[in-house]
Specification:
about 5% strand
């Protein structure tokens, strides 16, 4: 059940970020494929967190998963259906994946992991205070 929730939350968050980015940059419309891709990445990254993988390594693995998903989905869309859902205009492979975005994905995945770690730390301290009767 928690993986389904993570998939939905991650997918919605990723899609909303994509929509806001495209509106702010006046860069076309967002593809519905962003939601399942974001959901899958969120499930993988949170699974790594649950397994206590180093945060930096977890962010790196998340960036690799994101880039591979972009490569697979983007290639199928472009070469199979002659449709382009996104285009990276810089150093890239057919506009489907870009080297600089790999590092941005790493930062985003690392940020998600750090936020989760901070949330767990806060909840742990709150639970300890409640146990000792010092929590209001």
């Amino acid at each position: 059940m928690k993986h389904i929730l993570r998939f939905c939350v991650g997918g919605l968050a990723y899609f909303l970020v994509e929509v806001v980015w495209r509106i702010c940059m006046n860069h076309g419309e967002a593809s519905f494929l962003m939601a399942p891709m974001g959901g899958l990445v969120c499930v993988v990254v949170m699974w790594l967190y649950d397994k206590r993988v180093n945060l930096v390594l977890g962010g790196l693995i998340g960036a690799v998963v994101t880039t591979l998903l972009e490569l697979i989905v983007g290639s199928v869309a472009l070469f199979g259906f002659n449709r382009r859902f996104w285009h990276y205009g810089r150093i890239n492979w057919n506009g489907i994946i870009a080297f600089d975005w790999f590092f941005k994905w790493w930062g985003i995945c690392l940020g998600v992991l750090v936020a989760r770690w901070l949330l767990d730390l806060y909840l742990k301290k709150r639970k300890e205070r409640a146990k000792h009767g010092t929590d209001v």
